[in-house]
Amino acid sequence: MAKKALPKDQIVKLIVGAGQASPSPPVGPALGSKGVKSMDFCKEFNARTQNYTVGTPIPARVTVRPDRSFTFELRTPPTTSLLLAAAGVKPGKNNRARGAGNVPGPRNNAEGNAGRAGAKAGNEVRGNSHVGTVGTVSLKHVYEIARIKQQEPRLRGVALQALCKSVVAQAASCGVVVVP
């Protein structure tokens, strides 16, 4: 006779706007399929995120136990949303900020391309830079975003300099220019 498998905790990952959790999709169906009352989650989520700007996307990791009880932990907002907020970009459907390649990367300039095979001096390999930039941020903003991201438990061991480099690379991919 086969042994019955013990039920295990299930993990649900959600990204919900701060203070905007409601039992409608995507929260309701994601938690309802696991047997959790989504209204309880929404009340607690909105209470925990009341200090954030309303609408800021907040990742939440919900652990659902076999007895249908749950706990959840909040993570820091995505780097892209922090960069776009620092650059003063208004959220909207027509923003071309999403997707890599809107601006050339930090090493993608005329001097760096001169030694490449097939690259002529004076010609820049610019990717999709014709799309343009959506805003600018200073190094101070980059540093503050890196400090916010360093507070997250899974990134505590990462050096602040490495996080700053990661934020600069993310800025280049979403169309935000970093100025000194």
TrEMBL record:
CDD domains: Ribosomal_L11
One example GO MF annotation: large ribosomal subunit rRNA binding
Domain of life: Eukaryota
Residue ranges of every copy of the Large ribosomal subunit protein uL11 N-terminal domain listed in the record: 12-70
One Gene Ontology biological process: translation
One GO cellular component term: mitochondrial large ribosomal subunit
Annotated spans, Disordered: 91-129
Keyword match Ribosomal protein: yes
Feature: compositional bias, Low complexity: 104-124
SUPFAM superfamilies listed in its UniProt record: Ribosomal L11/L12e N-terminal domain (SSF54747), Ribosomal protein L11, C-terminal domain (SSF46906)
Domain Large ribosomal subunit protein uL11 C-terminal: from-to ranges: 127-178
Entry keyword set: Ribonucleoprotein, Ribosomal protein
Classification via Gene3D superfamilies: Ribosomal protein L11, C-terminal domain, Ribosomal protein L11/L12, N-terminal domain
Pfam families: Ribosomal_L11, Ribosomal_L11_N
Family of this protein: Belongs to the universal ribosomal protein uL11 family.
HAMAP family given in the database record: Ribosomal_uL11
Name used for this protein in its record: Ribosomal protein L11 N-terminal domain-containing protein
